Automatic annotation (TrEMBL):
Domain Adenosine deaminase: 20-369
Entry keyword annotation includes Metal-binding: yes
Taxon lineage: Bacteria, Bacillati, Actinomycetota, Actinomycetes, Micrococcales
Superkingdom of this protein's organism: Bacteria
EC number of this enzyme: 3.5.4.4
Keyword line: Hydrolase, Metal-binding, Zinc
Listed name of the protein: adenosine deaminase
GO molecular function, one term: hydrolase activity
Needed cofactors: Zn(2+)
Length: 381
């Protein structure tokens, strides 16, 4: 299907980009445009590994394709470096919204770590206000063009940098003013959610929703801690919940088989805890290495077929050279998904959004209408 500039279609020729979408796991500092990185770096005198947008985009993709989350995260030393000013944050947030809208996104949650943007004198509150101003400018521009989009902030505490309480307090201060939830990010292995217990206790008492990066670079214990200690309503990635599945193949290579769910997997499935799966990123960071090195080895399909609440996400569009359209296209190609399957993924993401139930229902209606229109249009061709 080529690069992200291609017009991704289903086998019947229906455009995937035109379909309404929900984006739940998308990092601000992983969603910059390469030319924006170049321009912001020039303003602060930052030397980059490439001097043009094409070469810089290739550098990010190559550096990210290491099979290691730790190595993957090193690319963010560049993107966070250019996001240390109010104008830089505003511009990145503004363009973030425009790029989501161009990809057919109706609702998006942008996650980022304010504590990583303080080296040029901004306070934590000023960083959040700058991002919110940029997001609102983007939303206004999208709506002026006759389209619909809504965006909320997820504030992330870096899991290796303390107990997270300061960022939890920050999220609560800006609740109702753009912030819709809390997350922890950074190196997962060795830094379980329980280390941020003070933050999660505070958020629990304030009834602030949380999603937690878990089940990416660490396994079932990390997922259990996210659910039990952090009381996460969603799992950021969560792909390694598949370690709690026992698959018994049929003899002689016959298709099919039997799957037994362990207690943690059963809990996640039965409680419909959403998995924020990011297929391309999961390949790059080695999150699915135990199952294989290609997308057809990703547990996405078995989790979907078993009835888990799966959502499709980009994680970092710059590092993975991707978009939601591309991720959906790759999945459709790999697992022969239909437009009805793609609609399922969007409806499950809409239900998982950190929005009031009335707004989630409205979003679900917009998705249903958009898919119905696309199907009718395709049938009429």
């Amino acid at each position: 299907m080529g690069g992200d500039g291609a017009e991704f279609t289903l086998p019947d020729g229906m455009s995937i980009r035109a379909l309404p979408k929900v984006s739940l796991h998308d990092h601000l500092d992983g969603g910059l445009r390469p030319d924006t990185v170049l321009e912001l770096a020039a303003e602060i005198g930052l030397e980059l590994p490439a001097d043009n947008a094409t070469a810089l985009a290739a550098w990010f993709a190559e550096q990210s394709d290491s099979g290691s989350l730790v190595e993957y995260l090193k690319t963010f030393q560049v993107t966070t470096a250019v996001l240390q000013t109010r104008q830089g944050l505003m511009r990145a947030a503004h363009e973030f919204v425009l790029d989501l809208a161009d990809d057919g996104v109706l609702y998006g949650e942008v996650r980022w770590a304010p504590e990583q943007h303080l080296t040029r004198g901004l306070t934590l509150d000023e960083t959040v206000e700058a991002v919110q101003e940029g997001l609102e400018a983007g939303v206004d521009e999208v709506r002026a063009s006759g389209r619909i989009i809504r965006v909320g902030q997820l504030l992330a505490a870096m899991r290796h940098a303390g107990d997270g309480r300061e960022i939890a307090e920050l999220a609560l201060r800006h609740r109702g003013r753009g912030v819709v939830g809390f997350d922890i990010a950074g190196p997962e292995d060795g830094f379980p959610p329980s280390l941020q217990q003070p933050a999660f206790d505070l958020l629990r008492d304030a009834l602030m929703p949380c999603t937690v990066h878990a089940g990416e670079a660490a396994g079932l214990d990390s997922i259990r801690s996210a659910l039990v200690d952090a009381r996460a309503l969603r799992l950021g990635h969560g792909v390694r919940i598949a370690e709690d599945l026992e698959v018994e193949a049929l003899p002689d290579g016959e298709p099919g088989g039997f799957v037994t769910l362990g207690p943690l997997a059963q809990w996640v499935k039965d409680r419909r805890i959403p998995l924020e799966l990011s297929p391309s990123s999961n390949l790059q960071t080695g999150a699915i290495a135990q199952w294989g090195q290609t997308l057809d080895a990703h547990p996405f399909d078995i989790l979907y077929q078993l009835g888990f609440t799966v959502t499709v996400n980009t994680d970092n569009r710059l590092q993975s050279r991707t978009s939601l359209t591309r991720e959906l296209s790759l999945l459709a190609d790999t697992f022969d998904y239909t437009i009805e399957d793609l609609q399922d993924f969007q409806q499950q993401a809409a239900e998982a959004a950190f929005l009031p139930v009335e707004d989630r229902e409205e979003l679900a209606d917009l998705i249903a209408e958009g898919f119905a229109s696309a199907i009718a249009h395709g049938a009429a061709r």
